Automatic annotation (TrEMBL):
Membrane-spanning parts: none
Record bears the keyword Phosphoprotein: no
Keywords: Isomerase, Peroxisome
Subcellular location: Peroxisome
An example Gene Ontology molecular-function term: delta(3)-delta(2)-enoyl-CoA isomerase activity
Family: Belongs to the enoyl-CoA hydratase/isomerase family.
Signal peptide positions on this chain: none
Protein name from the UniProt record: Enoyl-CoA hydratase
């Protein structure tokens, strides 16, 4: 069974994370697959909108830590950076339907979406600091830019979970809906977007993103370099070991 499933419905490409027993945690192979899907969708005139969501009880729990420890990202080319650049350069509308856990990259990747609908069960978290790491997907730029420094610092430097209503208040989420209405609501929005004039829609997105795209690319480059250092640090090794041993980490 594929870890990422796709389905075409008219001009809408549905992408589903499909590791429900692992809360859809991302492996290196999944990053590459998702990046390729977005790159191909960007070139396919038959695809006007991408809608993504998760199977089971979660959207995406971030990195699969076992896979992550075996394949830590480097400072330049990595599966993670491949997906990040695919998201930055994706000019078609991207709609997310989020339920359950959206942790780490499962939260930061949402900053690249144009519409984010969250079920009432959705729980978000940027736990990077608790693992001796820094955020990814350009979040060190996009979160202060969106929410202001104080609110971004709270999310990034404390790493505490927050619920769907707080995500909506921050502006991370477009709208919170009952879980049973989530996919219907997101699909209806994707359909509305698919019925708009395609070239004008893409031009609108490109122009709105123009002023921050270069800064975002710079932030991603710096994040990748710092992340590669942090993931190989004593703090990160202790955090990962403590996670698998189910104990609090002992920081130096």
């Amino acid at each position: 069974m594929s870890d990422i499933k796709t389905e075409r419905s008219g001009s809408i490409l549905h992408i589903q994370f499909n590791r429900p027993t692992k809360k859809n945690a991302m492996t290196s192979a999944m990053y590459v697959t998702l990046a390729d899907l977005l790159d191909n969708a960007a070139k396919d005139d038959q695809v006007r909108v991408v809608l993504w969501h998760g199977a089971g009880d979660s959207f995406c729990a971030g990195n699969d830590l076992e896979d992550f420890m075996k394949n830590p990202p480097g400072p330049h080319e990595s599966p993670q950076s491949k997906l990040i650049m695919a998201l930055i350069n994706f000019d078609k509308p991207l709609v997310a339907a989020v339920h359950g856990a959206a942790i780490g990259g499962g939260t930061t990747m949402l900053t690249h979406c144009d519409f984010v609908y969250a079920g009432q069960s959705a729980k978000f978290q940027l736990p990077f600091i608790n693992l001796g790491l820094i955020p990814e997907f350009g979040a060190t730029f996009s979160l202060p830019e969106r929410f202001g420094y104080i609110r971004a610092a709270e999310l990034i430097m404390l790493g505490q979970p927050f619920d769907a209503s707080h995500a909506e208040a921050l502006g991370l989420v477009s709208k919170v809906v009952p879980d049973q209405e989530l996919l219907v609501t997101a699909t209806e929005m994707a359909q509305k977007l698919a019925e708009k004039p395609t070239r004008a829609l893409q031009a609108c997105k490109k122009l709105m993103k123009r002023s921050t795209r270069e800064q975002l690319e710079t932030a991603v480059k710096l994040e990748n370099e710092e992340f590669a250092l942090r993931v190989r640090s004593a703090d990160a090794k202790e955090a990962m070991t403590a996670f698998f041993e189910k104990r609090p980490p002992k920081w130096n």
